[in-house]
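Minutes, methods subgroup
Present: GH (chair), OT, SY

1. OT presented the first of two proteins processed in the latest run. Sequence and structure tokens recorded below as shown on screen.
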Amino acid sequence: MAVNCSVDFEEFCRLGICSVDFEEWPCQARIYLLQIQPFVNLVRFLLLNVTPFIIIFGVILNVVSFSMLSTVILCDSGLSLYLRALAISDNGALFNYAVGIARHYSTSINTLYMNSRFLCGLNSIFMEFFQITSTNLVVSLTWTRVGAIIFPLKSISKNHNRNATVTIVVLTCISFLVSLTKLFSGGYESDSVFEYKTCQKVATPWGSTMYIYIAFSSWLPSVFIFIGNVLLIIHMKKSELIRTQMTCTHRNNTFSSSRTSRTLLAVSIVYLILLLPIGFIETLELYWDVVLTKSPSTNPTENDLYIKWLQEKMLLKWCRGLCFHIYHWNFAINFFLYYLTGKKFRDRVIDIMSITRFRNF
């Protein structure tokens, strides 16, 4: 049965195909997009309609968290400094997502970026910079806490804030250097799930730098967070056994230490759970586009393989979009994790809410 490929370019553009080589795509690939359209519509709805609410509430909650962690009661350790830096970095990531959505909805905004090489480069760098910085901060938080539990005597120091500041500055510089790779490789910018016309005309869509980017932004942090959490849980269990042998004074200190560990454990585990899907799909898509890449051919067998490859490439793109949306939640939910696992943070929130209610009455 003959396949009808009479759908015009504008209609297929609405379905997510606006590629410059659209007319060269085989008919089977165009029809395949129609078959997966329900899934595409779901992902598009999440990215363009749900993500804006994540951005708004995430920014508000991160500002509230930053304010709470800056109070005298909660800023008594290097932990507070890490979490405040994380709130700033998370808001930076959310702002970049807002830019992507704005470029989708507003042609004038996207044109502004396309006409400015500086804005394009800046957007590419900072889109990755804040994401990588947040990830590195979570890794550092995890291992700082592991070190404090495994080597408690060495962790007794009055320079927690200075050490945390130095660590944050070093991590920020490393994240920025890794983000500079986006100037030489367009990566996902060349095929954004936000569906705006890309301004990456010089940089190649893929390259060896993308292996560095994916390893540094996904897999290495995931491995470090996982190992750190395993060590943290093991030593927390040991602390539970030792706790019954301690005096009341020491027990209170251990409880406080345990609460801090639970907060960091919650933050790092949730981050790991939400990071793994996007890391997996990015790796698979990179392998598909670089190692398994196919080209159109006059040979029927080879051309069938190309069509199959192109169809899977479209499916992988929208799977990446779904995982990317899931990953967005990483930057908006820390307030709830602090509230659920941190007694001092929770008490501070309740106190402020009580004062606010009293003033309203």
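2. SY then presented the second protein from the same run.
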Amino acid sequence: MAGLKRAISKALGVRGEFWQPTFFDHILRSDESYSEKWEYVCQNPVRAGLVKQSEDWKYQGEVVLIDRA
């Protein structure tokens, strides 16, 4: 991961702190949890001030239904 971060930073011409230093994972145990986390991710561009509404973010993915069968 460090090499990828370094290469992307170099390509973007970014110096200093750019990347979040740590991360955490979270197991999605239910459809409700999945929906909550998806909504959180969709709101990231809004929180960052990149768009006014999450629907305006053109790089947004789509919700995939989890088949529990």
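Chair's summary of item 2: The first helix runs from residue 2 to 12.
Next meeting: continue with the remaining queue.
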